[in-house]
Structure formats: C-alpha cells, structure tokens
Amino acid sequence: MSRIITTTVYTLNELSSTAQEKARDWYRQHHADSNWYENVYEDFREVCGIFGIDLRQRVF
C-alpha cells in the first residue's frame, strides 16, 4: 500500500546557531572524503578521448 511521507527541509539561515553547527558537522563527517564526482571525471575523460583531446590532470 502506498503512503505519503512528508519531510520538512530548512535553509541554513532558518536554523539556530546550534543547529547550523550540527548540520555543518554532519556534512563534514559524511561528505568530506566522498568521491561522488569521480564518475563525472571519468565520463569527461572518455568524451575527450572520443574527440581526440589529450587530457592532463593535476593532482593536489
């Protein structure tokens, strides 16, 4: 059976200072080492290869 789930979302400015810091801490903890963008880079490398573009990458 289907059901409706409602989630209330706030902008950062709508949160109290304590809640803002908690949100920042959560984001740092869960997203700091995320490589979510790696597949975007890989797709771009493949497209460059199709067009004969020599892509160089800098690693910091």
TrEMBL record:
Protein name (database record): Antitoxin of toxin-antitoxin stability system
Biological source species: Escherichia coli
